[in-house]
Specification:
The chain has 416 residues and is an alpha+beta fold. Helix content is 49%, strand content 13%. It has a 3-stranded antiparallel β-sheet with strand order 1-2-3.
C-alpha cells in the first residue's frame, strides 16, 4: 500500500491555493481511495518530489508534520482493519478508512450543529437575531459551494478567515463593518459549540474585528420637534408611525422594546421594561413628550399603535420627507481599502434605530450626564454607548468656548 499527496487541479477555483489530497493505492488492483486532508497550499510552495510544503512556506513545519501524521493514521486504520479480518473486500476497507477520517475531520457536521444551535436557542434569540444567523448560514453554504472549501469545525482557521472575508467583500459585495458583524455572529456560535465540547478547534479566537468608523444618522432637536408637531390628521397611518418613532426618540429604547410595551408596564410615570435583546430590566422615566404620546392612545387596547418594523421604516421615510428633513448627507463606507461614498436626502436614511441615536445625542447635548443616559438606554459599557454619540460642530464650539472662556482682566484702582 502507498499513500501519496497531490494538489487538486480544479481550474474553477477562484483562489491560488489548492486542496491537498491523499491518494491511497495498492489495496486492490487498479483502485484508489482519495481523501481530502482539509489543508490547502499555493502550488508555488509545494514540493512535488517530496510531497510536502517547501521550507519557505510559512507554517511548513506544522503542515508537514500534520501530513505525516495523516499518512500514518491511514496506515494504522488499514492495519487494524485487516488485523480484525484479513479477508475483507476493498469496499469494506475503503468504508473503514472513510469512516475513520470523517469522524476525525468533523466530529459533528458543522451545519447540523448550526441548525441544532438555532433550534435550542430560538426561545432566547429575537426574531431579528435568528434572521441574521440564517443569513450567515446561507453565506457559509454559498462560500463552500463557490470555492470548494469544505466547512467543518476543523477547517475554520485563519486561512478560512482570510478566504471568507474576501468572499464576503468581493462576491457578496459587503462592507467591512458588515463582514465584521458576520464574524462576530459566527464566533458566538463557535463559543457555544466549544463550551459543549462539539468544537475543539480554537483558531477562531484569533479572528479580529475590523470596524470602520461610520456616519450616524440622528435628528437635530429642531427636526425632532418639527416632526413631533407635524399635522398628519389626514393620514392616520403616517400619524401613528410618527408617534411611535417619536416615543422612541423621547425614551431612547429599541423598536423591539417599544413594540412590546404593555399598559401594565406603565407605573407612576415610569416604564418598567424588560429588554427584549438582553432580558435586563429597566425603569425608564417618562418625560412630558412621551407621556403626551401615551395619553393620545389612552382609549386603545395597546399603549401604542404598533405595526411591523419593515412597514414602520417604509412609512417613516414618507413622514420625514413631509417634515422637510431633507438635508443632503454623505455616507462613507469601506469595502476592503475601497472608499464608497454616497449622498442621500436625510429622510431616506431615517429608520426606527435613528430614534435611539437621537435620544442619546440630544440628551448629551442638553447636558445629561453620560452615565445617566446609559442607565436609561441600558448600555452596559461605554465602548458600545460611544457608537451612538454624534455631537454637532456647533455644540462642540459652544462647549469649547464655555469651558475656555476668557475672563475679563480686573483693573487695579489706586486709592485717591
Amino acid at each position: 500500500m502507498t499513500v501519496n499527496y497531490y494538489l487538486n487541479n480544479d481550474l474553477r477555483s477562484k483562489y491560488d491555493e489548492k486542496s491537498i489530497f491523499a491518494y491511497v493505492r495498492g489495496l486492490a488492483k487498479g483502485k484508489t481511495i482519495v481523501l481530502n486532508t482539509g489543508e490547502r497550499i499555493n502550488p508555488k510552495y509545494w514540493n512535488i518530489e517530496k510531497q510536502q510544503a517547501k521550507v519557505n512556506y510559512t507554517g511548513s513545519p506544522e503542515l508537514n508534520e500534520y501530513l505525516t501524521a495523516f499518512k500514518e493514521k491511514i496506515k494504522k486504520v488499514v492495519r487494524e482493519t485487516l488485523t480484525e479480518n484479513i479477508d475483507l473486500e476493498f469496499d469494506e476497507i475503503k468504508t473503514a478508512i472513510l469512516s475513520a477520517f470523517n469522524k476525525s475531520d468533523n466530529k459533528s457536521n458543522f451545519f447540523e450543529v448550526f441548525k441544532l444551535f438555532l433550534e435550542l436557542r430560538k426561545t432566547e434569540l429575537s426574531e431579528g437575531m435568528i434572521k441574521k444567523y440564517k443569513v450567515l448560514q446561507n453565506h457559509l453554504q454559498d462560500f463552500e459551494k463557490d470555492t470548494n472549501y469544505k466547512i467543518s469545525f476543523n477547517s475554520i482557521d485563519l486561512m478560512f478567515y482570510d478566504r471568507f472575508s474576501n468572499y464576503l467583500l468581493t462576491v457578496k459585495q459587503h462592507t467591512n463593518n458588515t463582514v465584521s458583524k458576520y464574524f462576530d455572529i459566527l464566533k458566538t456560535f463557535l463559543h457555544w459549540s466549544s463550551d459543549r465540547k462539539v468544537n475543539k478547534n480554537f483558531d477562531y479566537l484569533k479572528f479580529k474585528s475590523k470596524n470602520d468608523k461610520t456616519d450616524l444618522i440622528y435628528l437635530t432637536e429642531k427636526e425632532l420637534m418639527t416632526l413631533f408637531e407635524l399635522d398628519l390628521k389626514d393620514n392616520t397611518s403616517l400619524e401613528q408611525v410618527r408617534d411611535v418613532f417619536c416615543f422612541g426618540c423621547f425614551t431612547g429604547q429599541r423598536f423591539s422594546d417599544v413594540s412590546a410595551i404593555k399598559r401594565d408596564d406603565i407605573k407612576n410615570n415610569f416604564w418598567h421594561l424588560r429588554i427584549v435583546k438582553t432580558r435586563d430590566i429597566l425603569k425608564v422615566p417618562l418625560n412630558e413628550y412621551a407621556k403626551e404620546i401615551l395619553n393620545k392612545y389612552a382609549e386603545n387596547d395597546k399603549p401604542l399603535p404598533i405595526i411591523s418594523n419593515q412597514k414602520t421604516n417604509e412609512y417613516l421615510k414618507t413622514v420625514c420627507e413631509k417634515a422637510k428633513i431633507n438635508d443632503r448627507i454623505s455616507i462613507v463606507r469601506y469595502r476592503g481599502s475601497e472608499q464608497i461614498e454616497e449622498t442621500f436626502s436625510k429622510y431616506e436614511m431615517v429608520s426606527t434605530h435613528t430614534a435611539r441615536r437621537t435620544f442619546v445625542t440630544l440628551s448629551l447635548e442638553k447636558g445629561m450626564r453620560p452615565e445617566t443616559v446609559m442607565e436609561i438606554t441600558g448600555h452596559k459599557d461605554y465602548k458600545t454607548f460611544k457608537k451612538y454619540i454624534k455631537l454637532t460642530s456647533s455644540v462642540k464650539a459652544v462647549e469649547m468656548n464655555k469651558i475656555w472662556k476668557k475672563e475679563p482682566t480686573l483693573k487695579v484702582v489706586k486709592a485717591g
